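Retro notes
What went well: the complex prediction finally ran end to end.
Inputs used:
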Amino acid sequence: MESREQLENAAAGWLFKRDAGDWTESDQQALSAWLEISSARRVVFLRLEHAWREAARLKALNAGAMTGQPSWTGPAADAAPVVQPRRGGLWRGALAASVVLAIVAATWALLPQRSTYRTEVGGMRLVSLADGSRITLNTDSEVQVAFEERERRIQLRRGEVFVEVAKDPSRPFVVIVGERRVVAVGTRFSVRRENQDIRVVVSEGLVRMESQSPAGALGPPASLLGAGSIASGDRQGVLVQKKSLNDVTQYLSWRAGFLMFQSTSLADAAAEFNRYNDDKIVIESAGLAGLKIDGNFRSNNVDAFIRLLGKNFPVVIERRGHTIHVLDP
Amino acid sequence: MVEGVNEWFVREILCHEAALRRYVLRAWPNPSDVPDICHDVYVRIYESAAGALPQSPRSFLFTTARHLMIDRARRSRIVSIELIEDLDALNVLIDPLSPERRLTARQQLQHLSVALNGLPRQCREVLWLQRVEGLSQQEIGSRLDIAVATVQKHALKGIRRLAELFYGGAQTGPGEQQRNVTSESAHGK
């Protein structure tokens, strides 16, 4: 009997051959004959075929359907990520035509490019960049990516972004939030923005956080953040906490679609949910706001959270349109 | 192939793969057997569906999985008798935590892009160029500067792995542990 692995290899071979050009009538007959032999073959084939066919949907991702609407403007709105070259003329057409996804475009890393990526409330988006770095946008976020000769720069305009930086010592990777710069060479970290406040979570490598002061001006000193650091900053200064990598994971759980709470106050937990959902939780009692919560939740499952809250604590829950009020009984 | 059964199988059975894997993983002592057990379950289901389509696919799936594990345990001499009793006692359904949900198109897309990003780099590049950009094997080879045979090798591995990730939600990266953590429990401290 053929092993599952043999069957999978054979089925994957058929699928790839079928879609990679030159598929003839006799190939089709050979495939049918192959499938005829056993249900095991058919089952394996169906399973891989479905996943493979679904993968064609990624074209939509390429065309920006992730956010439900085109999140950029430019001459090539159907090819993502769209690059807005600074040079016009001949370059423009060539650029637009050949930039499809950054994964193969090593040469691109050398040209200045700019593109904007956005997510809506509840959205998440993974973007591979020209240099091999990857960014993941959390809910309701916007970044502009600008790669230049000396610097790879991401401007976080709103929300939160997780960055996996491809090493390139000659071109530091910088995330800019307002007046702050978070600089990395090869590492993984996330940056979150709320108005002027910033939070940086480093899960690997080393990151430098500095101020973007005009040359010569005396800004706050730079902070070096190692793996496990969580730095929170506002206009006045930066607070750095050293945490275990396990704790850091909690701050990055959004990438898997989860919110993790560990002794998190109800007020903070509600604020976290509100970032991801259109239905907003309002805590109406100061006593309740300090309540400590533990648990893991899907970030889009407010209902489960509210239900468990209602079941486990003496609270009254009232829905009014798009707000959910949590009150003292 | 019988058209009806194929479509039914994809629509009603494959979508439960993540739950099926968790179910088998919880019941069966050897995690490395899980893919083979799932495969055997699929074959059994597919064959019995060729006669008549089961009314309630999800519970049929889990019942079949339980029976199959019992058979397998009885055949194998290494597995202890307690396991068989455990399996006998293991009544469907033990997966109340994550009822399978039909994903919206957007969620599917997100799911796929996460799956794609979980692949090794060359696999990902080959699949992307083929699936999204529609290049031929030769074109992919010259674009990535690798031999056509290598393109094929990556493609096979990539397709299999993509299916794993696509059905199983076997995430890579820091989300991995959290997926398995029992979710949705809230208590005060």
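What we learned: The longest strand of chain A covers residues 152-164.
What to try next: split runs per interface for comparison.
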